[in-house]
Amino acid sequence: MEERLEFLSRHRKGERVTDLCREFGISRKTAYKFVARYKEHGALGLLDQRRVPERIPHRTSAEVTKLIVTLRREHPTWGPKKLVEVLRKKHPDTRFPSRSTIGEILERNGLIVRKRRRKHHAPVEHSALSVPSKPNDLWCIDFKGQFRLGNGRYCYPLTVTNAASRYVLACEAFEAIDGLQVRIALEHLFKTLGLPKAIRFDGGSPFASTGLMRLSKLSAWWVSLGIRLEQIDPGCPQQNGRHERMHRTLKAETTRPPAMRLLQQQQRFDKWLSVFNHQRPHEALAMKCPADVYVPSTRTHAPKPLSYPLHDLVLRVSDSGRIRFPNGRRGDKLYFLSESLAGHDLGLRELDDGRWLVTFASVDLGTIDRTTRTFTPRSGTEADADTQPTPRRRSSTTQTQKKRRAA
């Protein structure tokens, strides 16, 4: 302040502005600015002034800010894109700011924490899985990771989604992973919404097994209904990324903190499912809600016995997973296939080389050789690779010890 007063005093005495600017280290524009301020306001005009303008014509009003903050607190996981879409539907006559401005409003109110950008990784090559384009082309099923309830007991949520529309078909809280309970829940879905063309799942129980063709009792039931199976590769949850992303939202909005009991947790799931399907817009659906896109399947659930018009024999699998194959004079032969196929009918067709092809619905399981009386599973399947025992390598120390003993 003293330097500014000295500058103006010497300027009023007649010293050149150029010389004074060189001495005080300021620009001519700054010098004339202080001269004008001193003439208009006196010494008070030399004080530092606020850079923020007194009036901002496009500033978001307090009423609009309150609507944004209130909706965000009701749905803590919704971002600016979803918030502005829902607010425009509820208040069509109100003008709302852009998504970036809404993000700044949420940050100012402590409702958003800026995260560091993740490093870009090269895309991962996935296995040949179908790309759904219509509702019911593909359903995804999985158990979300278990968590403890308030009473200390575990909860295992079963989730089923429609891939194309992101519609959550079911979210059931189970006390344990039980294939029978999963089948009961799916039977209800099949009766009310129809059958999908395919179901995608991981290699865990009860969806898959380590037996023939990785079939479990549950997945064998799906095949008998004419549903195509899609199993993701081990350790590759990104192949079921849409479903896993839904799990992230489910966990954030229903399990933090968890409910005290299983029924109370199920009530949370039901409430969340209604909001997710009917109120939460989805960016991949052009900001539509999943319920606006999803329609039930036209394939009705009407179980029929499997028929094999192009096969020579039809044999039923026993409860122990075996079939009794007639072998002429040598008598019948029992072949073990899989307990997962118990109760299902299989079709057998004789090939040109004397072997018999064994088929379950539309899936070829392998061949029976009547000469060697052996069953050979279908080659090139994941089940074959998983069921092959891994040879153990003997350590060099053990081999050396045996040589010494022999000597």
Structural overview:
This protein folds into four domains: 2-46; 62-108, Arc Repressor Mutant, subunit A; 139-293, Nucleotidyltransferase, domain 5; 313-387, no CATH class. Helices cover 35% and strands 16% of the residues. It has 13 helices and 13 strands. Strands 1, 2, 3, 4, 5 and 6 form a six-stranded mixed beta sheet that branches. It has a five-stranded antiparallel beta sheet with strand order 7-10-11-12-13, with no helix packed on it. Strands 8-9 form a two-stranded antiparallel ribbon. The chain is elongated, with a radius of gyration of 36 Å.
The overall strand count is 13
**Architecture of the largest domain, according to CATH?**
2-Layer Sandwich
The CATH class of the largest domain is Alpha Beta
Q: Tally the structural domains.
A: 4
Helix count equals 13
The low-pLDDT segments are: 380-398
Q: What is the CATH H-level superfamily of the largest domain?
A: Ribonuclease H-like superfamily/Ribonuclease H
Major sheet description: 6 strands, mixed
Taking all Cα atoms into account, the compactness measure Rg is 36 Å
Q: Kindly identify the CATH topology of the largest domain.
A: Nucleotidyltransferase, domain 5
